[in-house]
Design a protein that fits this description.
By secondary structure, the chain is of the alpha/beta class. The protein has 10 helices and 8 strands. It starts with 9 loop residues before the first strand and ends with a helix.
Length: 275
């Protein structure tokens, strides 16, 4: 059951709805999101093909925007001139591509070769800077290395957000000092150390996301994470900060628009036209 508890509008900074099999199912997911005032959802690519699908979906659903990128887990080779050109083509296919994502580093066991990850990350940061796209980045077991590469490649020129943040305050401060926001997701509902960090973060550097994707490992379909669950995340952040949930919606939405830089007013106008 969907409960309407927030006034919104809310923005889902990062998800993977392109992984669903049919446009019909995506439409139903977005309908449930609209019912709780989610007005914009960013669909992040994980491969060239996934990025292309994210772009195609923006033509079918007005509230869907796209990120373009190759996830470090999905690398099968370097980002050479050919791959760079294909990503460039995706990223410039529509004005609704508004971030470079999902890119970064992942140092869990059995991940692609680290040298290849570094090369791909640097090349995709270069593309983000070329196209003036904010970067919503992935970092797992690699925070120091990710922040170092972002600094060396001058990613602060475009900014963005640290996706699905679960780190400590020192990591959050380092990302913020580098010009990035902190993107909070459902781990905020269950991790005490993250709740403590979120209670103390600068409010003007927080955005929200669900990282939604198909979750067949969950027995009940209604328990799959969707953009509609942003209301739970916003409500929890409001509780931790001792402020009204509507204020969290207003602030995090404004933070997202500001993150977009030169594209901010164009996207804001398009979104407000739909409300």
């Amino acid at each position: 059951m969907i409960t309407r508890e927030l006034m919104g509008p809310l923005i889902d900074t990062h998800c993977h709805l392109d992984a669903y099999d049919t446009d019909e199912e995506i439409g139903k997911i977005l309908g449930r999101a609209r019912a709780v005032d989610v007005c914009l959802v960013v669909n992040a690519g994980t491969t060239v093909e996934s990025s292309r699908r994210c772009v195609e979906l923006t033509n079918k659903f007005p509230e869907l925007y796209a990120g373009v990128g190759i996830h470090p887990m999905d690398l099968t080779g370097p980002v050479d001139e050919r791959v760079y050109a294909r990503l460039h083509e995706c990223a410039t296919a529509t004005d609704k591509v508004i971030v470079m994502s999902e890119i970064g580093l992942d140092f869990l066991e059995n991940m692609p070769d680290r040298a290849m990850q570094f090369q791909a990350f640097r090349e995709q940061i270069r593309l983000a800077r070329e196209l003036r796209l904010p970067i919503v980045f992935h970092s797992r077991e690699a925070h120091d290395e990710v922040l170092r590469v972002l600094r060396e490649e001058r990613a602060y020129e475009v900014g963005g957000a640290m996706h699905y943040f679960q780190g400590d305050m020192d990591t959050a401060r380092a990302a913020i000092d580098l010009g990035f926001s902190i993107s909070l997701a459902k781990p905020l509902l269950r991790l005490p150390h993250l709740q403590a960090v979120a209670a103390d973060l600068p409010l003007d550097r927080i955005v929200l996301e669900t990282d939604s994707a198909p979750q067949p490992f969950k027995a009940k379909r209604e328990n799959w994470t969707e953009p509609r669950h942003l209301q739970d995340i916003a409500r929890k952040l409001a509780e931790l900060r001792g402020i009204d949930a509507n204020e969290v919606c207003r602030i995090t939405t404004e933070n997202f628009f500001r993150m977009l830089g030169d594209r901010s007013e164009e996207v804001r106008t398009a979104v407000m036209r739909q409300l």
